[in-house]
Structures are given as structure tokens and as C-alpha cells.
Amino acid sequence: MFIGRSRELDYLNKRYESDKLEFAVIYGRRRVGKTTLINEFIKDKETIFYTGIEGNAKENLEALSKSIFAVSEDFTDASGSFAGFQEALETAFKIAEKRRIVFVIDEYPYLANCYRAISSILQVLIDRNKYSSKMYLILCGSSMSFMENQVNGYQSPLFGRRTCQFKIFPFEFFEVKEYFEKFNIMELAVIYGITGGIPLYMSMMDENLSIEENIKTYFLGSNAYLFEEPTNLIKQECRDPAQYNSIIKAIAAGASRMSEICTKTGIDTALAASYLNKLISLGIVKKEKPFGVNNSRKSIYALEDSMFRFWYRFIPDNITAIQRGLVEIVYQKIAPQITAFMGGVFEEICKQYLWALNRQGEAAIPFINLGRWWGNDPKNKCETEIDIMGTSDNTSAIFCECKWTNENIDTAVLDALIERSRLFHYTDVHFYLFAKTGFTKGCQDKANALGNVTMVKFEDMALKL
């Protein structure tokens, strides 16, 4: 079943209808659904589909040759291969002189790493055929730093040749809703949190099992795919996986500032910065500053991927028990902490909801930026934070509080949010309260009296979009 990605698919098809040379670049982290998107796009189109392999140039040339032979009328014997990549690619472009051909090179970084001249050959062929070819070239890759620097980057021979590009992100919560039919809305939120919206991980979740059984089966089984998935991903992407794992574990345990991460891991600052930049490029870690603050010294690090947050929070400390088959004991240890884990997930869902309202013109105050703020409260002489705030100019702002608890939000939560908003000097403000379950009557009465408060229950939010 293909879900989501409608904007990407529509645009790919729009470019296909041009019937002239197109060059699309598609990239994103592993397991995010790039190849699935491409397969959906090409399902009714004549295609040369080749996937780069972690082998030498000869092996890649043989695989590429077979892909081209499969659609060429000039080759009846597909057992051999072209003399070189130049001949192979020239043949592919020749096929596209008279008819529309989609030419997909998936895992392009593998090919480019084993044959450095490949980008230069493609550049020459694109330039030579840009006014006459019906080729629709797609380069796809999971190494985001490679695709951004060596394909899209200024130093790349292919710079300026692409006609469109797509960075594929994990699904948002409201897309995950389309994937499952049996989970209720609360269960869907947890499924979204523990899979991080990654399509492959979502596809493993079983709607005929409870959330508890899904976690036990797919995370706490020593032979389960997700039991070792994060560490396997790090091994695939990073040269020194032990150091990267140490950093991720430190962040998951609460170390957020560079000094804290270095102290906890024993890695010096320069090396830690390099590792963190790599993890940021992989979409695993994010670097945050308080909303509206440009001072980099206030930056903190957090795990961007909620599946990684879940895994590193609960699995490493319990690996021995899991391997010994103590699944029930481990789950009973994890279960009371799931609500706290879901707090960050709920904040992300609320952001997605606000952006959706904004796109539809329904936000109480239109905004162009959203983020989390933390800092000093000079009046109360303490550190404080605001879950979400957004602005569009110097006069208007929204302030939001998100609570994933089974208790209704009371007046004290609204009062605290109003108090924190006064740390800023906006004259036109609106407050959003997001609750897992609901609101006390006192909170509702005060919100109605103020007139600039919107209260949103999770169930209502999920049903609206």
C-alpha cells in the first residue's frame, strides 16, 4: 500500500509530462521510503532501473549494463557488459532520443565512490543532450552529506544541472493515520513515537497486537529487526560507531550541552563537534537554540529521531535482560516511562498541527517560524521554558503548552503560560493549550473569559486533520 508523498509524486509526474530532459535528485535517510516513492512514480513508465552496489567498478558496470540491455532493442545478448561507464551512459541517453525513458540510479553514492568520474560523465551527457533528449534522470541516495555536497553542491560537476530535488523526510503523524485502520488515536500516537514516522518501521507494526505486544515483539525480542536497528544504522553510516553510540547514549540520558556530552563520553570538543555534525546530517540529532535567539552559546543537542529516543532510552540498559529472554520484566520496567517519553512526541505532533492550521489560513495568528524557547525568568529568578511559540513580526506571537498526561489541564497551566509570555514584548498574543485528555471547567471558563485562548484535545486535533 502506497500512502503519503502526494506532493512529491504530483511534482515528479508534472516534470514527466514536459517530455524534455529532466534531472531529479532524491535523497533522505535510510528506511524513509525513497525507493518506494520512485517505484510508485515509475510503475506505468518505461524505466532503466539500476541500484549501485558496495562493490568495485567492474561489478557496478556489469549491473548497470544489464539494466540498460533490458530496455534496449539493439542488444539481444544481455550476458555481457559495456566496455566502460561512458559507453553505458551514452547508450542510455541514445535510447532516450526518441522516446521518454526514466533512468533511475538508486544508491548513487555507491557508484560514485567506486568510479569517481561518473558525475563528470553525466554532466557532459546532460549538457550535450539538454535540448534534444527525452531522458528523465533520477539520482537517489541515502548518504545525505554526499548527495548535498557531491551532487547538489557547488563543487560538484552536476551543480546547476538538476531540474528538481526532493529531500524525503519521515512521515508526519497525520500521514501515519492513513497507514493504519485498527489502532485507536492514542495507540497511533505511540506507534508514531516509537517508529519515528519511518515507513519501514511502521510496516512492521501489527494492528492485531496491542501496543504492549508490538513493543515486546519488535523491540524487546533479541532476534527482532528493531532490537539492533539503530546500532546497525550507525555501523552502516559511520566509521567509528562506538564513539557515535556513546554520544547518542549521552544525549538520550540528558546531556544536552557540548560540555556535558564531552564530560559524559570522554571525547574532546573538536572531535565531538565533528561526530555531532555527522549525526545531524543523518537526521538523528538536532541542534537547537531558544526560539528567537541567535547566540550559539545557548545551543543544545537533542535526538531528532523519536525511534532513536525510544531505543536509546530503554534498550541499552536492558540488553542483557532482553538477551536472557526476560521480556516481561523489561517491559514492566519500561511501561511507566512511556507517558514521559510521549511528552516530546506530543509536542512534535502539536507543531505539525499548527503548521497545518497555518497552511489552511486557520491559525489564530499567522506565523512564519515555530520553536521551543527556554531561558531566565528574572522576576521569579529561575530558568523556565515555553513548549512552542511562533511569530511573524515584532508585534504578534502565539504561545503554546502541550501536556501528555491523563489529567485534565487546569487553570494553573494557563496562568503559567500567560506569565511566561510576559517575558516578551508582543502586543498581539494568542495562547494554545494542547491536552491529551481535556480541560477542567475552571480552565475552560477562564479561557472563554480571556477570549484569546484556544484549547485543543488530542482526539479533536487528530480528527480535524
Name given to the CATH homologous superfamily of the largest domain: Winged helix-like DNA-binding domain superfamily/Winged helix DNA-binding domain
Number of strands: 12
Query: What is the radius of gyration computed over CA atoms, rounded to a whole number of angstroms?
Result: 25 Å
The fraction of residues assigned to DSSP E strands is: 15-25%
Number of helices: 22
What is the architecture of the largest domain at the second tier of CATH?
A: Orthogonal Bundle
In the predicted model, the low-confidence regions spanning at least 5 consecutive residues are: none
Q: What is the terminal-to-terminal distance? A: 21 Å
The secondary structure category is: alpha/beta
Q: Strand count, sense and closure of the main sheet?
A: 5 strands, parallel
Q: What does this entry look like structurally?
A:
Helix content is 47%, strand content 16%. With 465 residues, it is an alpha/beta fold. The chain has three domains: 6-167, Rossmann fold (3-Layer(aba) Sandwich), CATH 3.40.50; 174-342, Orthogonal Bundle (Arc Repressor Mutant, subunit A), CATH 1.10.10.10; 363-464, Trna Endonuclease, Chain: A, domain 1. The mean pLDDT is 93.
